[in-house]
Specification:
Layout lengths: L5 E6 L19 E2 L2 E2 H11 L4 E6 L6 H5 L8 E6 L5 H8 L11 E6 L2 E3 L3 H11 L3 E7 L7 E2 L12 E2 L11 E10 H4 L10 H11 L4 E5 L4 E3 L3 H13 L14 E3 L4 E2 L4 E3 L2 E3 L4 E2 L4 E3 L2 E2 L4 E2 L4 E3 L2 E2 L4 E2 L4 E3 L2 E2 L4 E2 L4 E3 L3 E2 L4 E2 L11
Parallel strand pairs: 1-4, 1-6, 4-5, 8-12, 14-17, 15-18, 16-19, 17-20, 18-21, 19-22, 20-23, 21-24, 22-25, 23-26, 24-27, 25-28, 26-29, 27-30
Antiparallel strand pairs: 2-3, 6-11, 7-13, 8-11, 9-10
Length: about 375
């Protein structure tokens, strides 16, 4: 059997590092390439043969079901389980177990809700089945693994240890990291303690390893991006539009730009680098937008220059204003002739007067 029919998506996080994008919207529902990011994960799971998905929700849980419903529009059967108290990754997996119908030895796919990946899901399932593992992990290689959990493996791919966020050179024994996608043998999920917070990374996996369970790692170094920061989220959206990150859910052809229906773009405006213009948004004459996301009903006034930035729903960017690596919250107003750079975040509903913020090159 080389297909997993069921999957769990962990979508309960608060997305604190993504604020102000996540003030009104849970992280998986922030638009990437024109649709909520979660849509891409659901569509890729469906394309790999998954039929039943359980969403483990917590923060702003009430927004998921009205949007996705029972999942039939995506060819899926979607159910929802909401944590009353945050349970961590392992606790969330255990909490949704009653919704699963797989037999004890059948594979259940599990995805973190903030990872954009080109992982070959079917290959992971096949590897899991062939190796006879209790749990299989998608591993990817990164240049600087200090911010991640390291997962060394032996010559057969069997996991030998879990090393959380190493700091010294001696601790960095591999460049393989936990990439946030797993396959659990169904019976293993029931061994996770219920009713309390559990970290799958810090408790479940090391505990299974210590008990002699077979944990298998599969290195797949295709596209992989943790969308935990605004800069990464903007880049992920652009990569989806450009076709660098694969998804069957991008609403249009891949290319330099994605303009959603009802958006208005001036004929001489330049949109490049995987820029997305949301429904009802307006891009004024002479504006230049590169590698950026302009959410629905936002307005970019004439001759503004926006690079690697995100403009929230209903926000307004004044004429000749320059944004570079900036995040503008929903409904914010940035007046004309401002210059905002280098990760600056403007809170939802804020107002910046004309010419009030300037960054000069000598600062």
């Amino acid at each position: 059997m080389t297909e997993a029919k069921e999957a769990i998506l962990l979508v309960g996080g608060k997305g604190t590092r993504l604020r102000p994008l996540t003030v009104h919207t849970p992280k998986p529902m922030v638009p990437a390439a024109g649709v909520p990011f979660l849509t891409h994960q659901l569509a890729r799971a469906r394309a790999a043969g998954v039929e039943h998905i359980v969403l483990a929700t917590s923060y702003l849980a009430e927004v998921f079901e009205p949007y996705f419903g029972d999942g039939s529009s995506l060819g899926l059967h979607i159910e929802y389980v909401t944590e009353q108290e945050p349970l961590g990754t392992g606790g969330a997996i255990r909490n949704v177990a009653p919704k699963l119908s797989s037999g004890p030895d059948e594979p259940v796919l599990i995805f973190n809700g903030d990872i954009l990946t080109g992982l070959d899901i079917r290959a992971l399932v096949t590897s899991h089945t062939v190796s006879g593992a209790d749990v299989s992990l998608h591993l990817t290689r990164v240049e600087d693994p200090r911010a991640f959990g390291l997962v060394p493996t032996d010559a057969t791919g069997r996991v030998t240890a879990f090393l959380e966020k190493p700091q010294t050179p001696e601790e960095i024994v591999t460049d393989q990291i936990n990439a946030g996608a797993y396959i659990f043998r169904r019976s293993v999920i029931d061994t996770i303690p219920s009713g309390r917070p559990v970290s799958v990374e810090r408790e479940t996996f090391p505990g299974l390893l210590a008990s002699g369970a077979h944990l298998q790692g599969m290195v797949d170094s295709t596209y992989w991006l943790d969308l935990g920061t605004p800069a990464a989220f903007v880049r992920g959206s652009a990569d989806l539009v450009l076709g660098r990150a694969p998804s069957p859910a991008v609403p249009g052809r891949c290319g330099d730009r994605l303009v959603l229906p009802t958006a208005s773009v001036a004929p001489d405006a330049k949109l490049t680098g995987g820029t997305v213009v949301g429904a009802g948004a307006v891009i004024g004459a002479g504006a230049r937008v590169d590698g950026s996301t302009i959410l629905e009903n936002a307005t970019v006034e004439p001759n503004a220059v926006i690079t690697d930035s995100l403009v929230g729903a209903g926000a307004r960017i004044g004429s000749r204003t320059v944004l570079a690596g900036a995040v503008i919250g929903d409904g914010a107003r940035v007046g004309a002739d401002n210059e905002l750079r280098d990760g600056i975040r403007i809170w939802c509903g804020s107002t910046l007067p004309d010419g009030s913020v300037r960054f000069s090159s000598d600062q």
